Amino acid sequence: MAVRRTRLADGRELIYFDDVDTTLPDERSIDERELGPRPATAEMRQDVLTGEWISIAAARQNRVVLPPAELDPLAPQSPGNPSEIPSRYDVAVFENRSPSFGPAIRPAQGAEGGLAGLRRVGLERRLPSVGRCEVVCFSPEHEGSFGTQPVSRARTVIEAWAHRTAELSGLPGVQQVFPFENRGREIGVTLGHPHGQIYAYPYVTPRTERLLASIDGYGPGLFADLLERERGGPRIVLEGEHWSAFVPFAARWPIEVHLLPHRHVPDLAATNLDERDELAVLYRRLLRGVDRLYETPTPYIAAWHQAPVHERRDEVRLMLQLTSPRRGADKLKYLAGSEAAMGAWVGDVPPEAQAEALRAAIEGVAE
Fold it and tell me: Which of 126, 165, 264, 330 has the lowest tally of Cβ within 10 angstroms?
């Protein structure tokens, strides 16, 4: 699988990942647009009530929202469309033009270093939002998602995720790397083009901090015990040689599925070729099963939870958490008082019933 690097007109990195059976030429076009300077690195502020860091990234207000197909900014450039990608491609990854983190990647000189400093709580603490945000284009086509891609293309995307996880983890100031896909307007997607994103955070995210606390309370075997309990149980929905997918025991969302590797790996970069090959088939089948629950495509967030870069990597296992607010053909779950204000969730669908429906839907997916 060929990996080809270049730069966009304003200096942002662009990386092409070619399918193993690509028909594309080796040479790629140069980005000849005239672009203004990149935005300044955003500022993050600490919420003293929770200890969480909030990035204040005003440049995101300038994002393109639901453009027509002829002005798709993720399609290959054409005479009438000065998009972000100058050449035809299979899979392309580039630095986001309006990032939540970055473009600076090194902590400010004199800033409190290390995780201990980030976890200290104080009034009006500010730090630069260093890190990196990347866009991952799954296809040059205008419409689709990961699940609509052929297996060979899904495999290319997985290779791109693993490659970017490894490289981003090596950047100074990066504490955690998060690949994800938002699918559907109901989720807040602003571009219909099949794509995902990768965030390289300058801190360990709040959800992972909660997980670390659970491991402290349960023990380092949490993931192994969880997988052993779920495999063969009433909530399993899909199982292979290397991966298992199940509805979690305490599912928050109307549709929620977790996917775990059978052996301990901290992130996608640590998976082997056999695991990646199977993942391309199983994950695609899972997403297609989710879409068979209703007559129209289901909105979702597909979140690849990976271990922190610098700690607890022998305890935190790679996990996909797929969630959707869809609780019926024409009904959505909205986070209102209890969930949004207090974080006190109320599930709408029994997890075992949800798993049964998903198993039936997945069984009907054509290979």
Answer: 330
